[in-house]
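ingest -> validate -> predict -> emit
validate: passed (alphabet ok, no gaps, 256 aa)
predict: started
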Amino acid sequence: MPPEANQPALAVENLSFRYPGTTKNALESINLTIKPGERVALVGPNGSGKSTLLKLILGLEHLRTGSIMVYGHTATSCRHRVAIVPQRAAVDWRFPVTVRQVVMMGRYVHLGWLKRPKPSDIETVDQAMEMMKITHLAGSQIGELSGGQQQRVMIARTLAHDADLLLLDEPLNHVDITTQELIFHTIEALSTAGKTAIISTHDLGLLPVHFSRVLFIDRTIIADGAVSEVLTPETIARAYGFEFHGKPEEKKWLNG
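emit:
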């Protein structure tokens, strides 16, 4: 299903979500529009709903209230246009599978589970591994790799998916600086090509350097806008639940 012309990459309207058996909403009244090519940081404390929002966009959780549209279509009808890099803790690294096999999984949404990869699929996988500099690890077992190498493999799987909307759930945790820079270089190149990325992170120092927009969330949207506008002590205090007593002239100390 091709993207609809002149439609946002992501449009979320009046989204609220509560996990079964709980009494408190994990997300409340989320309204959000993201244009193609944006690099959006998703920031908030643990339990703020960041991962839940990404799962709803991907269709891993059932939406009950509100709507999610991806390039003009309901999110559940165009999952081939969305790819996710999950948190490392959500992956079973002991599973007996090679690097190449993991990256090839990114093609299954196009192939189906019972079809053999075509030469074009193999070429796409080779290119994804080359971009993440893991070609020499193609035959290695995923569990034998370092944390940074494992994260490169998951990014390569997402690249092989060739999605238009990329969701990355704390991809920088437990990775080295070289891998961090490679991830951001790749994301920036994809953004230039018109693809959209939403990246969950706790590292506020990265926001002015690598993102065009930041979304602070704590079950509901606390602040949303250009990094220079919303990365303030007051916003951080609201998002993380503490009180700020700074002077007015200290508002934008984070931006220099």
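The two ends are 45 Å apart (CA to CA).
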